[in-house]
């Protein structure tokens, strides 16, 4: 944003006392901020381990160590297209069932495994249906195609295996109830509150779901596990960034409409509440897991 004279214009403005307070408390310790003087490999390992613990993913792994995810693969549709589309599900922790679409080129064969793209969606109740091109009605089709938002369908047409998973707290099928509207009448806001009192974050739950899908997908006979791509828009981009920072099986990450600093220079926080990780500025900032950062 610039003025007529080309000078930067603040994104937001706060009263002077508030502005001073924000600058002081939002600075954080940034313990894992990258510096050229550091050994990259050593820094990367330490930063990743610390991030896993910070978001609550380590706790989830400890709590769920004895749980074995269950995958149900649905029947492929009878589409005349060059690919099949199946509505599947994976139970990633007791009682938590994540629906996802699996899109497979009809020409696929195990002798020539294909690259895989995983496409988590953001704040869109029909997001994973949209990404998979599994439209609910003609209006839904028209809106998504105008935005070129059927990203998993586009990928499978180009020779990829594709998974379009529902995102916890965001998909209609995985909404968290907010009785009496105490948390802003928001599914993801309610998810955040329930996570925080349990020592988790929505970010950790969503990364956990993606990792369990990766566990299953990398064993699929048609998937080349050395060529796994992940992309998503908005909240799906946030999830892409975190998953790729934490899990090295993601070889290419394309976060869309989500990659920014945690706060603006004016102290404004860009992301939805459900993307909040307590103490993140003590860890570092988003720039510290962007290329050539943690992933």
Structure, explained:
By secondary structure, the protein is an alpha/beta fold. It is 33% helix and 17% strand. Strands 1-2-3-5-4-6-7 form a 7-stranded mixed sheet, with helices on both faces. Strand 6, helix 9 (235-246) and strand 7 form a beta-alpha-beta unit. Helix 8 crosses helix 9. It is globular and about 65 Å long. The two termini are 30 Å apart. 39% of the residues are buried.
Query: What structural class do helix, strand and pairing data support?
Result: alpha/beta
Distance from N terminus to C terminus (CA atoms, Å) equals 30 Å
The fraction of residues in strands falls at 15-25%
Overall pLDDT score? 92
**Element order: H for helix, E for strand:** HHHEEEEHHHEHHEHEH
Strand order of the largest sheet: 1-2-3-5-4-6-7
Main sheet makeup: 7 strands, mixed
| Tally of alpha and pi helices | 10
Measured as a percent range, the helix fraction is 25-40%
Q: What is the general shape?
A: globular
Number of strands: 7
List low-confidence stretches: none
The Cα radius of gyration reads 20 Å
């Amino acid at each position: 944003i610039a003025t007529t004279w080309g000078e930067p214009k603040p994104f937001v403005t706060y009263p002077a006392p508030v502005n001073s307070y924000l600058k002081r408390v939002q600075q954080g310790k940034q313990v894992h901020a990258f510096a050229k003087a550091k050994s990259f490999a050593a820094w990367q390992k330490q930063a990743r381990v610390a991030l896993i613990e910070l978001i609550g993913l380590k706790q989830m792994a400890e709590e769920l160590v004895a749980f074995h995810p269950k995958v149900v693969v649905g029947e492929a549709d009878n589409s005349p297209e060059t690919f099949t589309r199946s509505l599947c599900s994976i139970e990633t922790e007791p009682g938590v069932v994540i629906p996802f679409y699996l899109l497979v080129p009809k020409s696929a064969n195990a002798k020539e495994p294909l690259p895989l793209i995983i496409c988590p969606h953001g704040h869109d109740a029909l997001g994973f249906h949209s990404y998979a091109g599994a439209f609910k009605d003609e209006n839904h089709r028209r809106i998504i195609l105008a935005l070129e938002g059927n990203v998993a369908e586009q990928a499978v047409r180009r020779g990829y295996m594709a998974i379009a998973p529902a995102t916890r707290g965001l998909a209609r099928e995985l909404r968290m109830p907010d009785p009496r509207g105490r948390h802003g009448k928001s599914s993801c806001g309610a998810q955040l509150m329930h996570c925080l009192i349990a020592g988790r974050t929505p970010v950790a739950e969503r990364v956990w779901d993606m990792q369990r899908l990766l566990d299953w997908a990398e064993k699929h006979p048609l998937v080349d596990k050395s060529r796994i791509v992940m992309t998503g828009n908005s909240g799906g981009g946030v999830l892409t960034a975190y998953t790729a920072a934490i899990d090295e099986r993601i070889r290419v990450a394309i976060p869309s409409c989500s990659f920014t600093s945690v706060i603006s220079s004016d102290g404004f926080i860009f992301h939805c509440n459900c993307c909040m990780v307590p103490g993140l500025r003590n860890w570092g900032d988003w720039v510290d897991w962007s290329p050539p950062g943690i992933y």
